[in-house]
């Protein structure tokens, strides 16, 4: 009897081991969030113990190691603690797919995988070594925030002092290359400008890549303070002309550049604003909603508009996050299926510290105080920061400066790619990373400031 019992246990252990090891390999899935689909890749390896990585190829080439992997029979649970990501899934009978759910903070969503091989995007403008300039990885402390920012300086090999810029990314967790759908626009910008004799410093957002801190607890104000520390660090470099130090910011990064310029930070001598908001953010977000619906062939109804405006009023209020969430859910009650758990997870984003801070920003008072040269570029097909209204605000409110230049580039989207409609759904399928005309104009403008 004991022998049969032991044999049964041995047989069971082999079954569990075999099933557990069936998780080995590469798994391809798509995380579907409101208005965006993110390819997701899990890789698992078993060598006496589990190891593995998670990758979101559209956001970054980085493979994030799992901090926890538990495989038991046909079930698996993994975590990436640094980003607060948890996933639980179940292996199919044929061991070729995993069905499960992912959670990050208040966000929960289904995420299913199939076994396979990830096919990389085609990116003809990708920048690869060897480089014709020097690259140096650096660490920059923000002591007040107890954060260390990791970045890369690219330096011309010619002697003397050079103009210099820091690159400040748009919203969402961004690495130093501003990787989106395998496009690395900041690496391309740094490569081009450095070849033209400009020192460039790009860096990982706090809590992203090699930078420390917690991204999900930061606001636009925090990212602005990070940018100030990076700017001062760049200004202190031996090959940098301190009288020619500026910021190139994209989207939220452009907003940060505008705010710092309006605050008249002494070390900031010029800014390049790439599709940065120039109108109050609550107005911008309403326009953004309308534009996104329009490219999808839809039209915003008066009821939709009223619900959105009420949501903004709640988000900007002094209510606690919990109370604001309750008010938002009540305001959305007339929308079908708005009271289920999935919808609640999506609404939870509106009460995050970043969103509540962001929605209250009005850049106009800062624009009115800018006295340094500004190069502002807007994209004609941009549905996230519509060109016409933001250009009008900048033209009306920016003090006149003969060195400033404001331009709209027809046919480009928010990422400054040549696009058909400007929809964010096109980003991944467009091979172009960044329009060269814009790059050339940026380089010419900076070098002519001398």
UniProtKB/TrEMBL annotation:
Gene Ontology molecular functions: carboxylic ester hydrolase activity
InterPro entries referenced in this protein's UniProt entry, alphabetically: AB_hydrolase_Est10, AB_hydrolase_fold, Xaa-Pro-like_dom
SUPFAM superfamilies named among the record's database cross-references: alpha/beta-Hydrolases
A matching Pfam family: Peptidase_S15
Keyword Signal in record: yes
Top-rank taxon, per record: Bacteria
Gene3D superfamilies for the chain: alpha/beta hydrolase
Keywords: Signal
Entry keyword Transferase: no
Signal peptide extent: 1-18
Every Xaa-Pro dipeptidyl-peptidase-like domain range: 147-304
Protein name per its UniProtKB record: Prolyl oligopeptidase family serine peptidase
Protein species of origin: Sphingobacterium zhuxiongii
């Amino acid at each position: 009897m004991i022998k049969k019992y032991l044999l049964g246990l041995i047989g069971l252990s082999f079954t569990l081991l075999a099933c557990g090891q069936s998780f080995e390999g590469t798994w391809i899935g798509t995380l579907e969030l409101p208005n965006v689909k993110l390819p997701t890749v899990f890789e698992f390896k078993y060598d006496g113990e589990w190891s593995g990585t998670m990758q979101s190829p559209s956001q970054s080439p980085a493979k994030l190691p799992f901090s926890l992997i538990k495989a038991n029979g046909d079930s698996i649970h993994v975590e990436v603690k640094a980003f607060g990501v948890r996933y639980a899934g179940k292996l199919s009978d044929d061991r070729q797919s995993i069905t499960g759910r992912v959670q990050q903070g208040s966000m929960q969503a289904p995420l299913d995988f199939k076994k396979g091989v990830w096919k990389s995007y085609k990116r003809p403008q990708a920048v690869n070594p060897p480089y014709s300039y020097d690259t140096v990885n650096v660490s920059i402390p923000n002591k007040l925030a107890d954060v260390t920012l990791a970045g890369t300086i690219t330096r011309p090999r010619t002697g003397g002092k050079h103009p210099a810029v820091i690159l400040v990314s748009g919203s969402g967790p961004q690495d130093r290359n501003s990787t989106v759908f395998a496009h690395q626009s900041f690496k391309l910008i740094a490569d081009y400008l450095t070849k033209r004799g400009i020192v460039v410093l790009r860096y990982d957002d706090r809590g992203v890549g090699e930078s420390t801190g917690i991204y999900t607890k930061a606001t636009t104000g925090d990212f602005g303070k990070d940018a100030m520390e990076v700017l001062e660090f760049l200004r202190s470099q031996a090959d940098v002309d301190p009288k020619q130090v500026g910021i190139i910011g994209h989207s939220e990064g452009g907003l940060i550049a505008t705010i710092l310029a309006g605050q008249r930070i002494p070390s900031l001598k010029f800014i390049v604003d790439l599709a940065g908001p120039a109108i109050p953010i609550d107005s911008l977000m309403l326009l953004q909603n309308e534009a996104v619906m329009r490219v999808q062939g839809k039209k915003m109804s008066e009821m939709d508009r009223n619900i959105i405006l009420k949501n903004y009023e709640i988000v900007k209020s002094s209510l606690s996050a919990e109370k604001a969430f309750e008010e938002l859910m009540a305001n959305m009650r007339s929308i079908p299926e708005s009271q289920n758990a999935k919808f609640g997870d999506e609404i939870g984003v509106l009460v995050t510290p970043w969103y509540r801070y962001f929605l209250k920003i009005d850049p106009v008072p800062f624009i009115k105080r800018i006295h340094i040269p500004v190069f502002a570029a807007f994209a004609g097909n941009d549905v996230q920061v519509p060109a016409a209204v933001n250009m009008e605000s900048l033209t009306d409110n920016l003090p006149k400066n003969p060195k400033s230049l404001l331009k709209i580039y027809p046919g480009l989207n928010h990422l400054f790619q040549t696009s058909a409609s400007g929809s964010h759904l096109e980003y991944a399928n467009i091979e172009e990373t960044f329009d060269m005309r814009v790059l050339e104009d940026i380089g010419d403008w900076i070098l002519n400031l001398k």
